[in-house]
Amino acid sequence: MKTYRKTLTIVLLALLVSALIPIPAFAADINVTTDKTSYLADELVTISGVADASVLVGIQVKNPDESTIYTDSVLANSLGAYESILSAPSTLGIYTVYVSITGATDSCTFTVTDVPVENIDPVADANGPYSGEEGVAISFDGSGSSDEDGTIESYAWDFGDEVDGIGISPSHAYAAAGIYTVNLIVTDDDGATHTDTTTATVTEPGAPPANVDPVADADGPYSGFVGTSISFDGSGSSDSDGTIESYAWIFGDGGTGTGVSPSHTYDDADIYPVTLTVTDDDEATDSDTATVTVSEVVAKTGFSIDYVSSDVVQYGDVLTVMGSDVTSGNVVYIYWDFVTASGLLNTTTGLPSGDFECTVKVPSAYYGDDHYLWARDISTGLTTSYGPIRVMPKITLSPTSGLKSDSVIVKGYGFSKKSDIDITFTGLLATAGVDKTDDLGYFEYTFKVGAVGDDTYTVTAKDANTHITSADFTVGVALTIDKTVGPAGTIVKIDGRGFTPNTKIITKVDITLGGTVPVSTKDGKNVTTSSTGTFTAYLVIPSVPKGDYKITIDGGPGKVATAKFEVDGETCIKLMPNYGVPGAVMTVKGYNYSQVPVKVTIELGAQTWTATTNSKGEWTRTITIPPLDVGLEYPVVAYDERNCDSTEDVLVALIILQLSETSGPVGSKVNLMGVGFDDTNGGDWNATFEDIGIIGNSEITSGTTFSKEFWIPSVAPGTYTITVTDWNREIHVTTEFTVTDPATLTPKRTQVPNRYNLSIYGENFAEKDEVETTWYLYNSTDVWDISDDVIYGGAAVETTEYGNFTGYFKIPWNIELGEYTINCTTETEVEEVKVEQYAEFTIEVIPEEMDIRIGKTSYARGDIITFTIKASLQKEEFYLGIKDPDSNEVFNSTWDDSHWKTIGAWYYIPQNLQIDDFTDDQYTIPSDATSGTWSYALWDLNSTIMGSGTFQVTEKTELEMLQDNIAGVTGGLTNLSTIVTDLATTVGLVNDAVASSSDAADNAKAAADEAKAAADAATVAIGEVSDKSDNAKAAADDAKEAAEAAKTAADNGLAAANDAKVTSESAKLAAEKAAEAAKGAKTASDGLTTLVYGAIAASLIAALAAIVSLMQINKRIAG
């Protein structure tokens, strides 16, 4: 029955609202880190990360006691980057950084310690081996050395001939031929050192040089899939004094290959070592080993990357990536080339629609069109790729302008890997530069500007495969800035050189952005050049739209210089709320204003207020809406003294929201009503549930009101914000709904065999009559749509008006044993926005167990055929067929599931039921039946044989009939033994349950112990009965010697057997009562009321009755 929920009308008066109204963002995402993990007290801590572009990021730092010690709010730039800096606290311990935007949070930790952070030693790389002639200088190269946490301060060389050298790339000539050991010692900025050793082979002039071994480079690591060709690359191998003649590969799975770039296919998933051995033209060899990770090909269910904003890219390009069919609400990783940690570019989250979207920045990568973007659904492990993507070359210059003798750094990306690079400087240098790229096609080269006139010159880089690109460098007046990207209000330090000495540069006149927008210095004063034509100024970036601009400084004729700057955030104000009645209080917050304290003026109507910016360019001011006409929008204007300004409209109006229900489970049907909204042009509006759309674009059809039903989507229990957006006036009105329970699926059991018909109950799905359900069965490798196979009443399952349903699913006969997950989803749609309610559960498909035996091996005419049937799962329906010695079918019958009895975890069809209750389904051997071997078979609905065998039909004397009757009793007792054994187990379970209760249950436990003992005694008694039946048979054999005595014994025995039959049935009924009473004892034990003692007493009495009955059987058979 539907739960009653209190209806609450929420009147959102602007007078009472002071909290920020969040604007929902789809696929919100954020991450955070600190520049180090450990700090000393008062050391600067830099908090940074990436969020959605241009969103406000809230930052909190909490101490080990979870008390907040630092808060900040920063605006992410157009790429989502943000940063905040604080001093490390003086108290030692672990501190937690929390960051949040609407719809996403993240955290990280750092430690404040009194132990200085341990320095990481540098790594020396002496390169080599080297070779040369006696007396001729050899150039050495230590540029491959590095220091992970600092810089290398010195390079010390020991050339092995008692001569030392210093510097990154020294030269040295050896006086005598020989092989010398060369050591390079590097020292970092913390005084730590590291040594690397190589050799220099020196030959006599004119003598043939000694061979230098080749260097193998197996590249890698590699990755791929089972059954898919994987390409390997040994092109990085080299021979400094000759050529490589052969490449021999061992792929780690028994396969081999030759050549520079062979391919190989693996049959099994694993991580394999791949070894490359190269041989040079002097038969010298070298080997290198890489790894290849081979994964299983994962069956896809439509998961894909559908769109990438460009497939021809350069280093640093920002690409938009969109995809579909990802698991809703789960994390998606985006990779470059390989699905490895080193290739991870970004993470995002699947939307309720199953779509995903994020941006990635193209990393450093070698030239070519064999690059791919990969996406991985973390919840399922599925991967998908998009490509190929072609990487083109690119160079950057730092700086891009300067004077004669300035140093310029050229960085190259996207060239051929391990290729020579020719660098030319048109008009700047007389000779070209030479460099070499690394594995990613990257190089870095530095040159000095020559003695040239003021002009713009071209720098060009070309690799060995003629891939070429260029960039411009300007010689003349030069500007250097400390920042090239930032929002409006950023303070930029700018240094100028080459200007006319002692010249005044007028702020807002001679300094502009984009050629037209005036730029002010942070103190508002003019700039004057020095006697050498230099100056330093601090400029405030004015309010302009996002984009790339040039800062222009006009120092007079021929002295105009520019510097590039990217504005990634616009000046803006937020009104909270952005509506209200006259007299209502409203908070105004400003972002991306001047990052220096200046006055801000706020205007609304005829009234003004002032505020002051902080170092982040932010400010807050509370204002009161003045007497203005209701129903109209008015601009709130805010501007500072350094050309930063913004405008936002406020609606003077009363707005009301009402929910029919403010709490309930997933799937609840809720009516959303609004008053006071704009009906202009149809009054477009929509609604979201946090970041999930629940009502699409709708129109206000009556005055300024609306009313729409929607259904709560699948989310975790908790309180969520519902936001209604009035698009005509860009008004965002919120209220809250508390989700009390998730959607659930409850199966009758979770361990089932093939062909088992599993009943499933669903609750808290869409509260709407006849909503279709979608069903999936999946495991780690495959997914099956089973929507047509889950049925109720012969049709597909649909919800009731309360969001509930019952369905039946027959486990397929052909799926393998193991674990599977069954998922069910309902979908509702309001104005083209779909909302899902879903749940799932896990089952284990197990083997079926069944034991079927015929009651006796020999029957006489007039006997009833019976069976002992025991199964792990009951059959809905099965069939019995009996044939005579001539193979004629003399009997067939259908047994339905009403015959099964449950004892413990097993299902039984007791023999006595087959005699007493199966009046239409039992077979009695006719009086004229043919003697001989008969056969029987039982099979299920799928014609699968459950059990089969033979039995004998014979003519018997009265004495033999007595023996058969005794054997029948023994068989019945055996069946009863099994039942009583299970009863003992059940009572034992009761005993355990009661034993785990409180001390008040001690008496109940003792009673249960006695009941179990009684059941055990019953089992012993049955064993004794069986022994007695054997003695009875022996006595009957002896009675054959005397006919009269035998006849008397037969008469007496037959009477005893009949009594035994009756008594055994009484014992069976008593045992069943004992089981029921024990079950009652277990149920009552939860409450520990006086009913416990009554139930357990009944159990004891029933068990004792069973024992007494068995003793009577024993006595009669013994007699």
What is shown here, in short?
With 1119 residues, this protein is mostly beta strands.
Provide the descriptors you would attach to this structure in a database record:
10 domains; Immunoglobulin-like; 1119 residues; mainly beta
Give an overview in words.
A hairpin with a 4-residue loop joins β70 (773-778) and β71. The strands form 21 sheets. Strands 3-9-8-5-6 form a 5-stranded mixed β-sheet, with no helix packed on it. Strands 10-16-15-12-13 form a 5-stranded mixed β-sheet, with no helix packed on it. Helix content is 14%, strand content 44%. With 1119 residues, the chain is mainly β. The protein has 10 domains: 8-15 and 654-739, Macroglobulin (MG2) domain (Immunoglobulin-like, Sandwich), CATH 2.60.40.1930; 31-112, Immunoglobulin-like, CATH 2.60.40.1930; 136-203, Sandwich (Immunoglobulin-like), CATH 2.60.40.10; 222-295, Immunoglobulins (Immunoglobulin-like), CATH 2.60.40; 304-391, Immunoglobulin-like; 394-475, Immunoglobulin-like (Sandwich), CATH 2.60.40.230; 478-566, Immunoglobulins (Immunoglobulin-like, Sandwich); 572-652, Immunoglobulin-like (Sandwich); and more. The model is unreliable at 1-27, 969-976, 983-1001, 1021-1068, 1077-1103 and 1105-1119 (pLDDT under 50). Keywords: Membrane, Transmembrane, Transmembrane helix. The chain crosses the membrane at residues 1091-1111. Residues 121-209, 213-301 form the PKD domain. InterPro entries: Ig-like_fold (IPR013783), PKD/Chitinase_dom (IPR022409), PKD_dom (IPR000601), PKD_dom_sf (IPR035986). It comes from viral metagenome.
